[in-house]
Amino acid sequence: FDLAVECALTNGDIVSFKLLLEEVIVHGRSYKDKLNVMYFISCALASSFRLPESIEKGLDILANLGIQLRGNESSMEVCVQETKDILSGYTDKEILNTRRMTDPTMIMAMKFLGKLELGMSQIMPKSAPHVMQQIIYLSLDHGMSPVSPIGFVHLGSYMAKLGDISGGYHYVKLANSLLDKVGSRESAGEVIFIGTHVRAYVEPLQATLQYHDEGYAAAMASGD
């Protein structure tokens, strides 16, 4: 049923999408069994110009999984510094060789966080750094998932916005290296796209244009 729901959403078959997801919501044996379908609901809301609803649904689901993002008033500067402090205890090699995430529930939580990071950066930019922070913390604690590079590339972007171009560039490159370590390219489009904006301050413009093309191709390949 999960695959059928995903296919209906991809094909724009809204009638089948709603019928299939209702079957899972009604007959799923547990809350965790319904997470994948709820993720597709969140994606459908975001793609139908209902981004605030998509974000609220994601926040509710994460809260039910014990990941509370509401009520955190820390600034971007504080989030970035706290994250850098945690990462200072790891070398790049240790991060790249971190075990892969295996807990199915945590993997789904990371997918919701990845969707939130992109959505919040558009309409709730003050809250987006908290999502980045959670992605990185959970990756270090539970292992790397296909969403983990998103956290690192956004950290690089935030650092660059705060004036640390070289530091941001470092984490952009680390995020790109992680893409080859997590066993999936599903987040490659977003990672390359965000990272290219930082690379443009460091590398020749011709190179960054090639990254844009690569990011576009990766996003199209993953249906992003």
Verbal overview:
- It is a single chain.
- The mean pLDDT is 90.
- It is built from twelve helices and no strands.
- It has 224 residues and is mainly alpha-helical.
- The protein starts with a helix and ends with a helix.
- The chain is globular and about 50 Å long.
Short description:
It is built from twelve helices and no strands.
Quick tags:
mainly alpha; 224 residues; 12 helices; globular; single chain
How does the major sheet shape up? Answer: none
Radius of gyration: 17 Å
Q: Report the total helices.
A: 12
- The count of strands amounts to 0
Succession of helices and strands? HHHHHHHHHHHH
Average pLDDT taken over every residue: 90
Unreliable stretches (pLDDT < 50, length at least 5) are: none
Which secondary-structure class do the elements indicate?
mainly alpha
**Envelope shape:** globular
Which range does the strand content fall in? under 5%
The separation of the N and C termini measures: 21 Å
Percent of residues in helical segments? over 70%
